[in-house]
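Could you please consider the sequence and fold following this short note?
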Amino acid sequence: MYRFFYYDNIIPREDCDYFIQQYEHKEFNKGQVKSVVKGEYTGIEDQARDSDIYWIDPKSPMCRAIWGYMLEANNYLGVTLNQTHELAQLARYSKNQHYTWHIDTFYKKDHPIRNLSAILQLSKPEDYEGGQLELYNGDKEPELPPIQSQGSLVFFRSNEWHRVTPVLSGIRYSLVFWA
């Protein structure tokens, strides 16, 4: 069984640039991490995440393309999908913004919500420094999935620990999708 699956440069650069241009001037919100203990909401964890987000309709052409790739990638990752997905999240990381170690899965009535995560790299690698997606692999050094180039797409199980290191300069855009 694979830990992650990826496509390098699967979405054309022009499509990534166009997608960013469509949304870069929208009003983004501060990304939040909700703290939940034994299924009960306990508040917001302010230190875990510093990024800006904008919610995207899953019926948008870019999200529909990702959904098709998600179904194909799941042949390698083998999680249970119910053909429903939530809004996609356009994430914008500016200087010093980050997202600490976390998982995307949460539970409702003992059933996991978000079994499969996908991240599309929208920015060109020369547009920012830092902002690396890292997966925890149990070793001393985190694993860097090979998705640094624009238009690359990575999939992993939503219960996989991952983070985005602080952006040192520039702006990093990514589109995050769950099923």
Notes: The mean pLDDT is 86. Helices lie at 13-23, 61-77. The longest strand covers residues 172-178.
